[in-house]
Amino acid sequence: MTKTVILGVIGSDAHVVGITILEQAFEAAGFDVVNLGVQTSQEEFVDAARENDAEAVLVSSLYGHAKQDCEGFHERIAAAGLEEVTTYIGGNLAVGQDDWEETRRYFRELGFDRVFDSETDPEDAIEALRADLDMRSSETEGESHTVRA
Ligand code: B12
């Protein structure tokens, strides 16, 4: 069965190129993608996940305010009874040149299942999601990939 993923750029962030590429890559990989676009509120992510019975929510943030924009996000997800939904965040998650490991830890502690930096190849995110959703396709069987997130 086709798996649905919700994709969007959180907060007041208007950087659209990254999620456009991610949308195409996830669709090409066989996912149903609901792209909420830029400047998406936490509520819009949660509503879309519930309405579309989504397996995963992919949050993008580029402009350096991800920490503020994601505060309380997982509490909202839990309040909507969506704890089983896989959540990823990626992009330019810190202001300036923060230590990546620290940034990654911060977002993991907020509740994201995986955290991706701005150098992420969309194929790595797809591979990670397939593994997390326990999906196996003939294309990926037998291959081994290292996912950094
Ligand atoms: C183009 C651009 C703009 C354009 C955006 C046009 C548009 N509508 O998209 C404009 C000029 C409007 C703009 C505005 C601003 N920008 Co700007 N912008 C950029 C720039 C040059 C390129 C972004 C881009 O399109 N990259 C190409 C795409 C393909 O890559 P990507 O976005 O990184 O996405 C990939 C990965 O990050 C990853 N990814 C992204 N999200 C996710 C999510 C998941 C789940 C996963 C798995 C992966 C993933 O996969 C994507 C595909 O490969 C970057 C610098 C840079 N080189 O990255 C700065 C940059 C992102 N901008 C920056 C800033 C500060 C701003 C402004 C705040 C500037 C200002 N003071 O006004 C505003 C914010 C406006 C707003 N409300 O959003 C900073 C952010 C700094 C930070 N985070 O610390 C950057 C890094 C520039 C810099 N070095 O300072 N910007």
Description:
The protein has 149 residues and is α/β, with parallel strands linked by helices. It has six helices and five strands. It has a single domain (4-132), classed as 3-Layer(aba) Sandwich (Rossmann fold). A five-stranded parallel beta sheet has the order 2-1-3-4-5, with helices on both faces. Strand 4 (86-91), helix 5 and strand 5 form a beta-alpha-beta unit. The chain is globular, with a radius of gyration of 14 Å. The chain starts with a strand and ends in a 17-residue tail after the last helix. The model is unreliable at 137-146 (pLDDT under 50). Bound molecules: cobalamin (B12).
The domain count comes to: 1
The molecules bound to the chains, other than polymers, are: cobalamin
Tell me roughly what share of residues is in helical segments.
Answer: 25-40%
Query: What kind of sheet is the major sheet?
Result: 5 strands, parallel
Tell me which oligomeric state these chains represent: single chain
The rounded distance between the terminal residues' Cα atoms is 26 Å
In the sheet with the most strands, the strands line up as: 2-1-3-4-5
What is the strand tally? 5
Low-confidence stretches: 137-146
Mean pLDDT across residues = 91
Helix and strand run: EHEHEHHEHEH
Q: Based on CA inertia axes, which overall geometry fits?
A: globular
CATH-defined architecture: 3-Layer(aba) Sandwich
| Secondary-structure content class | alpha/beta
CATH fold description: Rossmann fold
CATH homologous superfamily caption: Cobalamin-binding domain
